[in-house]
């Protein structure tokens, strides 16, 4: 078996991707997973029976285009003209409605199109407008026929049947008008064709606006590594491109530069910011023998490292691969309307055909048989079904936006109320993702402000994130800085400096031990550790002066958020790459009972996969390291302060960083799905009641189908659906 990732052209909606996937999986020796978002297909085929050309032919036969191997490379964004098509459709729909219905509401009619004076002009004008609309919306009709041919009828198939049923009957009525039977003037349904296609196109446009975001984000991720690097060649430094780096080369990285490729440190000590991978804000110490990751930032000290993983083998490339695979293996969620149409459409077609045959045998009149056949299709096609789901989704999405929720997929809105587990990333999601001073133990005779003035003045000369937290605290307290002499930084330990003749040493415990400074404050030290702090020791002239706890503080309302989620019988789990003690301290503080600590990006995704076995999982995160788990989860939620890759890999973005919006999403989802079910009921009930009449079952009682009743049923069901969906504007959040 051979596996290939093909780039696919011609996919515009979920009907396309699901139809192509079903078609490919029907072929002998082929297993496929089609991804609409990535516009690609992950295909495994038997290379003893088939070639890549054979597979590409299958794609072509299904009505799509194979654009070759998808290497997830950066592409130029194509200019879309969908917006202008929608404007044209809207204008044509309004004109069609005015011509066909202005006389019903007392508006002045266009003189030469007056149906009572110029019925043929009236019919032909509506026919021309309907044909233009059908041409603009031909992708819907094409998909409808394509899925019908492949025996996978769905929403597009249903719309296509309705459009053509209305169109055929209207053309037949136009023919009758042309032959002088003006009674058919009121039996035209060209306006239905225009309105159905217009609404469906608008729905598809709204739903598909952000379709390419994940792919773009993945391509942007490839640029996180630097373009150039410095390697040692014959003892001399040489600047090269990443493509010129070979395994085994010694690469030089100076302070402030990015690591170019994955490797192992051969010389030097520094602190590296790996937050884009681990999600943790505190830089980690790296020295000889330690691994470094491409794209991470070197804060201090030059290091030399041996190149080990280059190109597609790098950690960044691996994350891209995992995100792509996660999106490809994510099972598509079938729409309620698609499921209904899959049963309803074939049944209606069968009923119409049987009725045609029966009436042809009974009446011996093909006109009667055709009239019955078309009447059944017209009256049975629930045109409002095209509105039932998308209209509710659009209104609910608008309500979400008002509350600071950007919902990027209707599946997320439909399924949020079914969630069994909410997984919260720690850094940047539960916490603010920014180091702050949490506690100062002052053992000196100085005031806390005087102490902080000395420490911050020294730390101002350092680039370390903990140093920045100290400086920010001083700025917040309006403390002025003082002059510092003889400053020096010791990579991996801390800093030394002199103020007014006093020698200050600030750093970790190893630095204190190295300078024989006695540290006998175990109670205070343990308290800071238990609360998840990073510890900074401060000494003056060989005597311990202070302990400073620095940590990433939790967001203000997170306790309330967790409480509300748990009240809905939803389990909350915290996921973090941080250590167990820090994770336990934060989880206890916010009321989370379950944690998973010390997990890497690939492990996070596996945790989410395991949780999905017990029900739907919602994952909330903000970093690149969360992107894989975001797309692995049933619903990925990111905060707007997060990275682009996290936001573009998610289904929902919390624009105001308030996690209480998760509660809003769940409530809106529940009310939306109830509303959709109600809409589906009203979309069908009028039409189903009319089917027996259209079939002629009640003709012996003198009750026959007048197409105007069919039009009335369609109109009433559409109006009812619209009014019912509008009730979502008044959603109350408890």
Number of helices in the DSSP assignment: 26
Dominant shape: elongated
Largest pleated sheet: 7 strands, mixed
Strand content: 15-25%
The overall number of domains is: 6
As residue ranges, the low-confidence spans are 210-214, 326-334
Give the N-terminus to C-terminus distance in angstroms.
54 Å
Q: Helical amount among residues, as a percent range?
A: 40-55%
Structural class by sheet pairing and helices: alpha+beta
Number of strands: 26
Briefly characterize the structure:
The chain is of the alpha+beta class. Helix content is 48%, strand content 20%. It has six domains: 2-69, Alpha-Beta Plaits; 78-209; 226-313, Distorted Sandwich (Calcium-transporting ATPase, cytoplasmic transduction domain A), CATH 2.70.150; 330-401 and 661-734, no CATH class; 402-417 and 557-660, Rossmann fold (3-Layer(aba) Sandwich); 432-554, Calcium-transporting ATPase, cytoplasmic domain N, CATH 3.40.1110.10.
Please characterize this protein's 3D structure.
By secondary structure, the chain is α+β, with helices and mostly antiparallel strands. It has 6 domains: 2-69, Alpha-Beta Plaits (2-Layer Sandwich); 78-209; 226-313, Calcium-transporting ATPase, cytoplasmic transduction domain A; 330-401 and 661-734, no CATH class; 402-417 and 557-660, HAD superfamily/HAD-like (Rossmann fold, 3-Layer(aba) Sandwich); 432-554, 3-Layer(aba) Sandwich (Calcium-transporting ATPase, cytoplasmic domain N), CATH 3.40.1110.10. It is 48% helix and 20% strand.
